[in-house]
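RWD domain-containing protein 3 structure dump, as promised
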Amino acid sequence: ETHGITFRIQISVKELLDTDVLLKLLFHLPVNYPSTLPDISVNSDQLTRAQCMDVKDKLLEQAKKHLSEPMVHDLILWIQQHLKYVIKQSATVCNEKTTLSKGTSAEDGIWMLLLHLDHMRAKAKYVKTVEKWASDLRLTGRLMFMGKIILILLQGDRSNIKEYLILQKTSKVDVDSSGKKCKEKMISVLCETKVQSQHKRFQTFEVKEYSMLDELQKEFETAGLTTLFSEFVPPLLK
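structure tokens r here:
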């Protein structure tokens, strides 16, 4: 296995506002784990997206303390004991962030991801899922259809880009030939890079269909991504 392993863990955490919180944790352990930190994704119906991101950040902080030693079990025990404090701190930090001016280091670290999908059998459901993920992770860009070509172009915080990739690869987003739900196995990461000054920032995430290659090319050119188009899109037509 060249990509490491990915697994999900669900835990119920008590004593938070007198209710149980169900945390859905996803860990991706790279092949050189534990010398390399795992990728972590956090979801919960009882928490906001921002709170889930704060829980993830705190888990990664703890993970750094356990580098080079198995850590997943320790991380789970830690979040069970500290979740309520993380949530309280999250509310405070959130209030402070609203007073900060724009142009911080987070704004400087915008990344871009270009993905190629082989097909979508359950197109309507698949599109809706991609739109939800982009919205939840505050990513902008395009889901683009041109003939049999399907591209996803995303811009946003690098950690959110990475979390999107984990969701894309580990969630049952489509159906197989028999109509059974399945994970996306036919996906290619064409490009993952930092947004440069010549690149235009997308303000929204949109789903667009193009009847001709020229129309798709114009979309890339308008965003200052001519080189990206010429390097990765024409080969897909062969």
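The first strand starts at residue 5 and ends at 16.
lmk if u need the other ones
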